[in-house]
Amino acid sequence: ATSESGPKVQVKERLYIGNLHPTVDEHTLIQLFSRYGRLTKLDFLFHKSGPMKGKPRGYAFVEFADAEGAAKALGACHDKVVRGRKISVTFANQAPDYSTSSRSRPHDVKTTALSLIKTSNKPRGTESKIAALEAKLRQLEREKEVKAPEESTVGG
């Protein structure tokens, strides 16, 4: 199958993990998959809007340092029961590159520091990921602080 960005390319170091139980978190996935090789990236996806905002989407991506670790994990974990659900593990397809043309970017994609890390094809260190997460947390805390004084003055 081809699209604007060309044929889909499987990434042999990156796995898609689907059908995750809502209680499965990043820590659970790290514990499960790190026994098969060194993990270099974990993309754990959440709903960005709507009634499910902030809740897990039920799937994630795990990236290994090498294809051998990913292949071992795929063989061992596909159809494995985790918290009562049979998880689906497959090789991930390369994400479309939206950075080349703003016209090809879907309208529902909200770009934040965190989503830039997730969509970037450039290798990033753990420190930069942590910095981006901390920046996002500070932004959320500022938004919360702005809302809190308004709520307290309305009731009084």
TrEMBL record:
<feature type="domain" description="RRM">
    <location>
        <begin position="13"/>
        <end position="94"/>
    </location>
</feature>
<feature type="region of interest" description="Disordered">
    <location>
        <begin position="93"/>
        <end position="129"/>
    </location>
</feature>
<dbReference type="GO" id="GO:0003723">
    <property type="term" value="F:RNA binding"/>
</dbReference>
<feature type="compositionally biased region" description="Polar residues">
    <location>
        <begin position="112"/>
        <end position="123"/>
    </location>
</feature>
<dbReference type="InterPro" id="IPR000504">
    <property type="entry name" value="RRM_dom"/>
</dbReference>
<dbReference type="InterPro" id="IPR012677">
    <property type="entry name" value="Nucleotide-bd_a/b_plait_sf"/>
</dbReference>
<dbReference type="Pfam" id="PF00076">
    <property type="entry name" value="RRM_1"/>
</dbReference>
<keyword id="KW-0694">RNA-binding</keyword>
<dbReference type="InterPro" id="IPR035979">
    <property type="entry name" value="RBD_domain_sf"/>
</dbReference>
<feature type="compositionally biased region" description="Polar residues">
    <location>
        <begin position="93"/>
        <end position="103"/>
    </location>
</feature>
<protein>
    <recommendedName>
        <fullName>Probable RNA-binding protein 18</fullName>
    </recommendedName>
</protein>
<dbReference type="InterPro" id="IPR039157">
    <property type="entry name" value="RBM18_RRM"/>
</dbReference>
